[in-house]
Amino acid sequence: MKRFIQKIKNYYHLLQAILANLYYGFPSRKLKVIGITGTDGKTTTTHLIYHILKTAGKKVSMVSSVFAKIGDREYDTGFHVTTPNPFGVQKLLKAAADHKDEYFVLETTSHALDQYRVWGIQYEIGVITNITYEHLDYHQTYEEYVVAKAGLLSASKLGIINEDDRSFSILNRLIKNLKLKVKNYNSKFKNIEQLPELTKFNQYNYSAAYSVCNRLGINDEIILKAMKTFKLPKGRLETVYDKEFKVIVDFAHTPNAIKNILQSIRGSIIHVFGSAGQRDHFKRPLMGKESSRYAQTIILTEEDYRTEDPDEICRQIASGIKNKKYLVIIDRQKAIEKAISLAKKGETVVVTGKGHEKSLCRGKNEYSWDDRAAVLKALEKYDYL
Asked: Are 221 and 275 within one domain?
């Protein structure tokens, strides 16, 4: 019944998308739109493709979960938003077309695809980075989640998918049934050995970006040059402090993302994280399990708990923690301060879940929040700054 009601609502989004396309004159037809979807890695891949195209001298705009960049102007996409609503995204596409851009890189969520919010957008290339267990409160099953993501391939002239991902077999079946044009990629790509500090999980993001830009005709020399000068988006593996110990802030909010970030860090780890309320509760024990595989100290805290009980959310996460002691400190600032107070020389404090986001939802209200600022406040409290 819940899914049926959602499908009815989706027709409203479809109507909005049709009207938005008509109002703005189907602007995607004047651009080569590159769509990026996936559970993890969407934002980094989006920003990297944008950076490579800019380095190659191309006129390009972009929309990601961090911000939208149209020409020389930067736009805020709102709280907890990746793909804007139909009128929002069509307005940005129109602005890019008016700017005479050739390319538009669009981070595209499964929700936007399933709800027809990106209906009418003609994608030149569609990329699926990976599909792990997430949003099953909405999609119900993993296969339905994969099918929703595959909607991007159906809307694209060419699809690019990760052959190492667990979703590959399902996607391959859909591709054959729908007779879609698709190319595969994996963690390896030309000149990868010239990027020695690349983490394993970012190898896939860089490989996806390489596959896209290579198909667009950008030569390998320019791609490598751009990759060497690329800086990860704000809140992605961002080092805030690196003296007596290290403090990293990252957006990781899925079991797979937590695994990727923590296993890339050497030495003892203090992990501070929570899980968003009114979102997929199936992933919470899995998040606890992955944290306990790599972190020596775990501090569970709030993360946009909305109208859910944050203590109950932490209990659900803790049910997956194996053979590790943990603390529960609901106040996120106090949790970060506790982590800083515990940190010893050579250790790494990792704060995940919020990354670039500038608000924290408690109840029905949004409060100003910045993980990076919270870390700096904690460091100052203990005289590290």
From this structure: no
Contact 215, 183 (CB under 8 A): yes
DSSP class of 195: -
Asked whether the beta carbons of 133 and 283 are under 8 A apart, the reply is yes
E-assigned strand segments in the chain: 32-37, 60-63, 68-70, 73-75, 103-107, 123-128, 156-162, 182-185, 238-242, 246-250, 269-273, 297-300, 326-328, 348-352, 359-362, 365-368
- Tell me: do 154 and 251 sit in the same domain: no
pLDDT at 4: 64
Residue whose structure tokens are 């290290």:
246
Q: Are residues 156 and 263 in the same domain?
A: no
Judge if pTM exceeds 0.85.
yes
> Are residues 259 and 209 located together in one domain of the fold?
no
Please state the domain count of the chain.
Answer: 2
6-15, 106-115, 133-142, 253-262: lowest mean pLDDT where? 133-142
pLDDT of residue 134: 74
Average pLDDT score over residue span 60-66? 96
Residue that is last in its domain, among 229, 260, 283: 229
Q: What is the pLDDT of residue 79?
A: 64
CATH number of residue 164's parent domain: 3.40.1190.10
Q: Quote the distance between the C-alpha of residue 365 and its chain's center.
A: 23
Q: Is 328 helix (H, G, I), strand (E, B) or coil?
A: strand
Give per-residue pLDDT as tens, 179-214.
999 999 999 998 899 998 899 999 999 999 999 999
Annotate 335-346 with b (16+ C-beta within 10 A) or e (fewer).
bbbbbbeebeee
Three-state secondary structure call for residue 50: helix
142-154 vs 168-178: helix crossing angle, rounded to 10:
50
Q: Across-strand partners of 239?
A: 248
Domain that holds residue 11: 2-229
Greatest Cα pair distance in the chain? 62
Lowest mean pLDDT among 15-29, 130-144, 260-274: 130-144
Q: Say if residue 190 is in the same domain as residue 124.
A: yes
